[in-house]
Amino acid sequence: MKTIAALQAIVTATPIEGEPTTAELDAIEQEMPLISAEVALLDAQIMTLDRPASELDERRIRRARRRVLTARRELANRTDTVLPGGAA
User: Fold this and answer.
1) pLDDT at 18
2) Cβ–Cβ < 8 Å for 40, 71
3) Is the dihedral of CA 26, 31, 35, 37 positive or negative?
4) What is d(CA 33, CA 71) in angstroms, rounded to the nearest whole number?
5) Within a 10 A sphere around the Cβ of 3, how many other Cβ atoms?
6) What is the pLDDT of residue 3?
7) How far apart are CA 37 and CA 69, in angstroms?
8) Cα–Cα distance for residue pair 78/40, rounded to 1 Å
9) Would you place residue 49 in the very low, low, confident or very high pLDDT band (cuts 50, 70, 90)?
């Protein structure tokens, strides 16, 4: 019968880093306008879940969608920084 204690030491020998790296934080910072726009769209959509969407709700959702598309376009058109690993 084989013991698994030796195998566990190999698996758990490297500590798991819980903090993001500087490169990951920079990538998040660059994507923050898109993240904020997507959160605003989600908020607008959540408001209409339990009731029919009014004209104001429809306008709010349209504006939020346009903000998301604008943020995506601006993020895609950024050519000044190429991040490693394919991060946008």
Assistant:
1) 83
2) no
3) positive
4) 6
5) 7
6) 59
7) 9
8) 22
9) very high
How do residues 10-39 score in pLDDT, each as one tens digit?
A: 555 565 678 889 999 999 999 999 999 999
The residue whose two tokens read 């504006």 is 63
- Tell me what the pLDDT averaged over the chain comes to: 83
Considering the entire predicted model, what is its pTM?
0.66
In three state form, how does the secondary structure of the chain look? Answer: CCCCHHHHHHHCCCCCCCCCCHHHHHHHHHHHHHHHHHHHHHHHHHHCCCCCCCHHHHHHHHHHHHHHHHHHHHHHHCCCCCCHHHCC
* Residue burial 37-52, b: 16+ Cβ < 10 Å; e: rest: bbebbeebeeeeeeee
